[in-house]
Request: fold
Amino acid sequence: MSQLFTPYEVKGVTLKNRIVMSPMCMYSSMEKDGMLTEWHKLHYATRAAGQVGLIITEATSVHPDGRISSEDLGLWNDQQIQGYAELAQLIHAQDTRIGIQLAHAGRKVGTEQAMIAPSAIAFSEKHRVPEAMSLEQIQRTIEDFAAAAKRSLQAGLDVIEIHAAHGYLINEFLSPLSNKREDSYGGSEENRYRILGEIIDAIHSEWSGPLFVRISANDYHVEGLNTDDYIRYAARMKKQGVDLVDCSSGGVVPTPPTAIFPGYQVSSAERIRREAAIATGAVGLITSPSLAEEIICNGRADLVFLGRTLLANPYWAHTAAKELAYPLVAPRQYTRGW
Reply:
């Protein structure tokens, strides 16, 4: 029997299979108000009909000034809850679970609003220099994450993922390349982890469901972080009640990965799972069903996160089931075609 299609349970939430749709920004909140649109409902519900086990919606900002672009989604006010509640109903109707990735873009903010970061260091020569955050700004940001978690609960969502990867705000605090602070939020590994730890605790005060964290397990820079560092970070997360670490890489500086190939980030998920004893998600050019199956069968990760693969083919699970000889049950309306 295919292991890719076995259920996965976490904190009372059961995923019908190990296939997860990765968060991918759609840049489609066209009123610039962070609200979900009809496009989002069509986009995500189609992947649910395609039998993905868990859909994690795109990076959703906890503050209007924390968006990657002015077309990004947000959950910084109560008016934004209803759209997520409607989307959750659509997703649940297909027996799929829905998660949300809560985020703040930090020095990668793409709007004309104020830009904040751990330190006043630009991402590149083409980017603005951010304002180094005060302790008051750090505390408000932690509170913003907690408030967004409360709204996620009110919307009926199943999973929260904290975006601590790809060079956005939390990742900027974790990495010594972007964090040059000399207070309790900078310097040592423990201090650089502090804001993530406080965000985790703040979210737990409002949310008792599954909590994931997406990381960049390699900065691709000799003075940056690598998987060894994130094994220690992941062990801290586990102690704080994080359920799964979603293992991506890169983005804190413009340096590209040293090599890109199918499954090129899976080794980080495998090592973190084994050495930090925490569940992991594998991501990174996982396009073939056989590779996805191998990852789960060999215990290299607990879930497989698919990005552009699901943009190209919302019915990838159907394709995988055929290749792996698994009797996937189609939506009633599709039985003649499947």
About this structure: The radius of gyration is 19 Å. The chain has ten helices and 13 strands.
